[in-house]
Structures are given as structure tokens and as C-alpha cells.
Amino acid sequence: MSQDLADVVNEWTGLEEEYQHLQDTHKRYLQKLDEISKLQNNCSSSIARQRKKLKELSRQIKKKKLSQEDANTLAEIKDKLKTRQNVFTEMEAFLPKKNGLYLSLVLGNVNVTLLSKQSKFAYKDEYEKFKLYLTVILLLLSFICYGFVSYRFLDAILNFLLVWFYCTLTIRESILITNGSRIKGWWVFHHYISAFLSGVMLTWPDGNLYKMFRGQFLAYCLYQSFVQCLQYYYQSGCLYRLRTLGERHNMDLTVEGFQSWMWKGLTFLLPFLFFGHFWQLFNGLCLFRMARLPDCKEWQVLVCGLCFLILFMGNFFTTLAVVRQKSKKRNQKSKSL
Ligand code: COA
């Protein structure tokens, strides 16, 4: 055998051995996947069974008339029943579950549950980054439309991008909620309304009324993108600190440290947010005034006005509720220290 052929045969034998090893590893991997999916089914059905039985048990407990001693034992059981429900919810965060109506419609019945804490954090991190990149693009585009180019086609591109952005957010947020995020329903609803509003702006014909409102709308888009950038730094800061809290053994961060950082960030952000909310109210009122003009023929004026008003009310009251809830928690913490 020539030297050249011997080299080839040697190489091939090495590759063959590695290939055999790869096949074994892949076979083991498939077996483990099978095991995991069986374990997932076991856990899910066991949780469902336990939930059903717990429900029946709490119904029975309510009907019972007991002596003082028995009542104490029962109170203990009741306490445990409550904590058990929370444990089940935590367990379910790491088990595949059926998609809600919206995700089933958009994605079909594909599993969107992320099975580890790291992948949940990574998905949220990527969601925040996606929002930031798109927001910067929107900021630049609205700046160009506002200051340099007054061309309806470019406005249409901006509005189309807004529609796409908000629709994508609704999908990503539904996936986040499936994975245990506590995003309030209003913020998701806010994105549906914003997508609808941008869609209506897209169809508004290029008449006198559109020209009257255009500058104000573009300036508002600019401001909103600016506020969303600030929001990104706040929210990704919260995420980063929460993650380091979860891995606290090697990080110098305490729960109080996190709370005080969050409070400082929030108080910095709030004036900008409230200013944005009142700008939404102002937009709504301006559009209602325009709708009363005799030459106003476009339905878009009234519909956009209504959308701005709903956005104002939802944003303003939800933000107030969030601040109240956070300040209550903060006061309780400082009292208990
Ligand atoms: N959009 C998407 N997700 C949001 C959100 C928003 N506007 N506000 C809060 N969340 C998410 C948080 O990231 C968190 O998610 P997690 O459970 O996965 O960690 C969850 O909802 C709970 O957040 P919460 O603790 O209630 O609030 P926060 O401290 O993260 O943020 C505010 C508080 C007030 C800063 C935030 O709600 C906000 O920016 N609101 C104003 C938005 C607005 O008005 N925009 C228009 C500007 S013109």
C-alpha cells in the first residue's frame, strides 16, 4: 500500500471511530428525550389529578362542623392547601403547556415553554434588546420624517414599521407570559391598541387634516421612542440585578440593594412617562377638536382620537397602580426592618 493511501485509510478509520461514538451519543440523547417527555407527561397529569382532589377536599372542608381541636388541625391543612397551589404553579413553569388562544392562532400548537431559568432570562433579555434596536430605528425614522423629509410614502413606512413592531411584541409577550412573566394585561392590550392606531394612521389619506396633525404625531413618536430607550435601561437593569440576585453566592447584591436601585430608577423615569401620557391625552383632545371641523370627512380622525384617549387612561392609571403597589411594598419592608 502506498504511503498516500495509508494516510487516507488512517484518517478514515479515525473518522469511523468518531462516527460510531457520535451515533451512540445521539442514541442516548434520543432515549433521554423520550424519558424527559414521559416525565413531563407524568408530572403534568399528576399535578392535574392533585389539583382536582385538592379542590374536592377544600369543598368538603367548608361543609364540616368541628370541635375547637379539630378546627385547629383543619386550619393547618387549609394553610398547606394554599401553599401547595403555589408550588404547583412553580412546577408548571418548567413543564410544557397548551398555548392560549392568541398563540394557538398565530403559532399553532407548538411548545413555547422554556425549560430552564437561564433560557427564560435569555429570552427576556433578547426581547428587551429587540425592543431597543427597533426603538432606535423608529427614533431615527421619525426624526427624519419630522425634520427633513415630508413625504407621505416615508410616513407610511414608519407607520407600517410601528404596526409590525407592536404585533411582534404581542407575540413575544404572550410567550413571556407562558414562561411565568408577570407582565400586566394592560401592557399587552396597549400593544394591540397601538398596532391598531398605527394601522389607522397608515390608511389616513394625505389631506389638509393629515398635514395638520402630522407634525404633532411625528414629534410624539420621537418622544415615545426616547422614553422607550430610557425604559430599556431601567428594565434591563432590573433584569440584570434579578439574575445576579438569583446567583447571589458570588455576587455582591442584596434584596434591599435591588429594591433601592429599582426605586431610584423608577422615580427618575416617572416624570418622562407621565409627560408622555399627557401628550397622549393632548393628541386625543386635538383629534376630537379636528373631528368637529366642518371639512372633516375622514373617519380616521375620530378613531385615532379614541385610541389616544384609551391609551392615556390605561397607561396613566396602570402606571399609578404600579407605583402605588411598589411604594406600599417599600414601606412595608422599611417598617419590618
Ligand atoms: N411593557 C412590557 N413589559 C412590561 C411593561 C411594559 N410597559 N411594564 C412592566 N413590564 C414587565 C416587567 O418587565 C416585568 O416582567 P417580568 O415579570 O418578566 O420580570 C413585569 O412586567 C412586572 O413589572 P412591574 O414590576 O410591574 O414593573 P416594572 O418595575 O418592570 O416597570 C414601569 C414599571 C412603570 C417602569 C413600567 O411598567 C413602564 O414603563 N410603564 C409605562 C409604559 C408607558 O406608559 N409607555 C408609554 C410612554 S409614552
Automatic annotation (TrEMBL):
Tell where it localizes. Nucleus inner membrane
Transmembrane region(s):
130-151, 157-175, 187-205, 261-279, 299-323
Provide the primary localization: nucleus
InterPro entries the UniProt entry points to: TMEM120A/B
Keywords, ordered alphabetically: Membrane, Transmembrane, Transmembrane helix
Q: Which cellular components does GO assign to this protein?
A: nuclear inner membrane
Give the membrane topology, semicolon-separated if more than one.
Answer: Multi-pass membrane protein
Q: Does the keyword NAD apply?
A: no
Share an example GO biological-process annotation for this protein.
fat cell differentiation
**Sorted alphabetically, which Pfam families does this protein's record hold?**
TMEM120A-B
Is Oxidoreductase set as a keyword in this record? no
Which PANTHER family does this entry report, sorted A to Z?
Answer: TRANSMEMBRANE PROTEIN 120A (PTHR21433:SF7), TRANSMEMBRANE PROTEIN INDUCED BY TUMOR NECROSIS FACTOR ALPHA (PTHR21433)
Q: What family does the Swiss-Prot or TrEMBL record give for this protein?
A: Belongs to the TMEM120 family.
Spell out the protein name for this chain.
Transmembrane protein 120A
